[in-house]
Amino acid sequence: MEPILIYGFPLGSSMGLVAALEWLRKPYRLCRVDMLGEMRDPSYARINPRHETPAFVTDQGRVLTENMAIASWLAARDTERRISFEPLSPQADRMRQLMAFVNTGFTAAFSPLWAALEMQTPNPAMQSALRQWGRGNVVQRHDRLEQLIGDTPFLLGDYPTLADGLLIGVARWLDFHAVADRNRWPKLAALRARLEADPAVIYATALEKGEHSRGAGGCAGHVPLAEVIERFGTPRA
Predict the structure, then answer these.
(1) CATH of domain 4-82+200-232
(2) Keywords of this protein's UniProt record, alphabetized (predicted)?
(3) Rounded to a whole number, what is the distance in angstroms from the first to the last CA of the chain?
């Protein structure tokens, strides 16, 4: 069977993994999930008890969660090295370093902003404090990433890799939360512009918005969430 990526909308970090699957050019399927609705349903816990996306059903029917675990699974099967590098190479070490930075500190910096936005019972004073704290963290992490970016068109060379995929799914949160002008970080802004113009990223963004679009990779179509839960979710207690 083809693996299935369960990706979320709106503005899910998983958008970049859809793009990475397109770059990989191997058969896969998708399952689109409303993170404000379907993902919060108790039945979704059968796929991910943390009620988060992404989740990934492997070609053996096993469910993986967490961006880094899914990226590692893809890298191990990237025999043509379209989105990764030889496991013991310096480039692979560098890719894992950048992915870890994006997946931890860079992504986590936005957590206070999401907490303020999603607070079920509004608390203006607490929300203001969370936004102030979050904006400071986001700026700091953008400063650090700007220092890490080299002179190549993409993070690790002349073509996008898994590291670029993980980044582009999250980097757009800067604009959504109106933290700062992206041009404050010229290297990162230029990288984002190249990625946003990439056909795979355009395709992934269109799917996230619910638009019917055809990619150039190996997508074999969408699978309904109910079917994924029934076939691959853990049995009900």
Answers:
(1) 3.40.30.10
(2) Transferase
(3) 27
What is the C-alpha to C-alpha distance for residues 98 and 104, in angstroms, rounded to an integer?
A: 10
Residue type (1 letter), 199: P
Amino acid at site 186: P
Distance in angstroms (rounded) separating the CA atoms of residues 2 and 201:
21
Per the listing, tokens 């799917």 go with 207
Segments making up each domain of the chain, as ranges: 4-82+200-232, 90-159+161-197
Q: What is the pLDDT along the chain (237 residues), one digit of tens a residue?
A: 999 999 999 999 999 999 999 999 999 999 999 999 999 999 999 999 999 999 999 999 999 999 999 999 999 999 999 999 999 999 999 999 999 999 999 999 999 999 999 998 999 999 999 999 999 999 999 999 999 999 999 999 999 999 999 999 999 999 999 999 999 999 999 999 999 999 999 999 999 999 987 778 799 999 999 999 999 999 875
Can you tell me the distance from the alpha carbon of 128 to that of 182, in angstroms, rounded to the nearest whole number?
22
Nearest to 183 by CA among 193, 173, 197: 193
Report the CATH architecture of 90-159+161-197.
Up-down Bundle (1.20)
Q: What is the pTM of this model?
A: 0.94
Taking alpha carbons only, the member of 49, 54, 99 closest to residue 72 is: 99
